[in-house]
Predict the structure.
Amino acid sequence: MQQTLEQDRLLHRITSQIRQSLNLEEILNTAATEVRLFLDTDRVKIYQFYSDGHGQVIAESIHQNRLPSLLGLHFPADDIPPQARELFLTARQRSIVNLETQQIGLSCAEQNASDIRYRPVDPCHIEYLRAMGVQSSVVVPILQAEQLWGLLVSHNVKPRSVTEAELQFLQSVVNQLEIAITQATLVKQIQQQVEHEAKVNRISRLLHADPRIQLQHALAETTTVLQGTAGRLYLLKGNDTPEIYTIGEQPAFLDSNRPLEQHYLWQSYLRGDSDQTAWAVKDLYQEPAFRTLTSVFQATSIRGLLVIPLHYGQQCLGCLTVFRPAIETETLWAGQFDPDRRQTMPRDSFLAWRELKGGQTQPWTETDLKLAQAVGEHFSMAVQQYYLYHQVQSLNTGLERQVQERTATLQQAIDRQKALASVVAKIRASLDLTFIFQATVREVRQLLNADRVAIFCFEPNSNWEIGEFIAEDVQPEFMPVLGFRVQDYCFSQNHALHYHQGQLQAIADLEATDLASCHMQALHKLQIKASLVIPLLESDYLWGLLCIHHCEHPHQWTDSEIEFAQQIAAQLGVALQQAKLLTQTQQQAEQLAQALHDLQSTQSQLVQTEKMSSLGQLVAGIAHEINNPVNFIYGNLDYAQTYAESLLRVIALYQLHYPEQHPEIQAALEAIDFDFLTTDFSKILTSMKIGADRIRQIVQSLRNFSRLDQAERKPVDLHEGIDSTLLILQHRLKANGRSPGIDIIKDYSELPLIECYAGQLNQVFMNILSNAIDALESRDEKRTPEAMQHQPSWIKIRTALIHNASGQKCVMISISDNGAGIPETVQSRIFDPFFTTKPVGRGTGLGLAISYQVITEKHGGTLQCHSQPGQGTEFRIELPISYS
């Protein structure tokens, strides 16, 4: 009962291991260990058979090294006779050997475990086990897919009997291992299928991802996945030379440098059935059909090859060949033996023996052939796609070439129209002939790809014998002709008339023409090989020539080039006419502008003259009307003073002789404050006299300023005119509630009398001083009282006797201020008529313009303005002492 429980637990552990793991090696090692522990034997091993009949220990469990390890060692196929293998497979026969009794028990799994038949052990079998150090053994076959997969073997160094229950347990373990092996086989098949599809997909992506097909990369990848070291792709292309791609070492060419695939062996294979599979050759030196081909492989390490035909429908596209080199194999055998002889005697030892073999080949497996078939199909489709792609590309290339030629023609026409439009636009945008000519020759040369394009202009009235190149665009390696003057009597005699009639000259090859020698010499001098000359007509007059030159080689002029050049010449003719009209218009405009300026100047002078005349008459009338009453008042003040003093003396005498006054008289004297009246009356008369004198001075200043009595040039004291002007402007110079006033600083030198128009000069002084006062008032409006107190406003008037730049003796009058200054942009225009920076209603823009005219035209002097923003302004007048 206890043993049954142990068996069940052991089977449960093995079954759990199978369910929990897909690792066959782990499962087999676990099973070997569990069985050895359960049987309490010295060694349990699992032995797997290979296709050639030999086997290998792939799992093992040993108790305390009582027996040597056989793990990984190979056993020859002769170690297990064919009849034993047959019984293992068909009857699932199990064997139990006990060397102590020299009996072997045989039992079939399909029968009861108790049905064990014993017979004597074969002496050879006994020697075999003794050489292994084994006294008893149990062998249970492991089947898989009706094939003998391997054996479960138990060894013991001492004799041991095996019970029926143990044998039945071993069979149960083997049944579970067969399930695990089936499971592992399925997993391996799935993994192989996944790897197979992955390899095919990698190659497929290289073949189908790009219409141009990466055949070289696909060949390299195919060689790798088929475990080859070299390969080649042979593609048939109808009657054209076959296309060959290679990777790795390659066989030599056949005779006449023919590729390997043109050998009759390949040709007969390729001309075979389109459904044929890959042709696998394990060792070409062992293949009879390759005896005539071994020479082309002798210089290589190639031993095996796989030829994959490429068919699309019934059409043979070529083939794909993968090469494998010779390899060395290493096998660890359990004991030394002669692999080339049948084993008739058991080995004396099972110590590991290493067998090395060179010049071996790796066989092509069924997996390799399936993979090759799939790859071949993809290559066939890709190559057909490759051919179709190239056919389409060839057609597209032809169409593209036609389209490009037509497009180039259209583009050429478009470019020429654009150039023509550009010339027209430049003619419309600018009437500057120099700019138009230079832009035109540049665009024409670039568009026609000429070496030189130039414009030649005939000198007027030269009978077309003399001219000059006035615009040019030339390649740097050729001689420039810009500015080059030509005097050619030959031209006027032989060609001028034709050009004048609108005819052109197109020379494709200068050396092949029959031009006059004089003309040829002129063209040779300019390095010309081919020439196109178009006349430039201004109306019906031959103005010049449009010259297009090829200087490196002759050039055949096309109709489109000639037509384009004629269109350009026609537009340049329009530009010439427009330039002529522009010149005439500009001359008329200048005349009109000068007339307008003269009219404005005359008008402003008339206005000013009328203004001054009216002002002078007004001032003279006012002065006259004021002067008479003032003279009357001023003349009678002295009499009033005398009469008043006499009356006061009489009253004083009366008071002296009659000190006692009548109360009524006394009251009257007190009422009028007689004592204060006596004192203040004299003061009042004195003040009246001073006031009258002031009025007389003002009247005299007004008369001096108007100078109606000096309309002609007369010697004048300039200081008197300046002072009169200041007196008139005195009310603007005084302090008021808004500003502390403007200080006048005089720095007068001793001056002689100057012959001048006094009234006009006084007006100049008035204009300059008034502008200075305006500027200072405008600045003070923005300043604080503290700033005005710290930096008061002033006007400085300085005079001096100097010599001007030409050495002439002159009087200099400088009127400067410490105002805000005048910006440079304004200084250049302050003397222009009607220009003003003052608000509307405060200035006409004529004051300084008229002042400038009075100084320069009327007096032959100069009027200059010097100013810097923030540092004030100075007007400097220079007047010759005498001017006629």
Observations:
- The chain is about 50% helix and 20% strand.
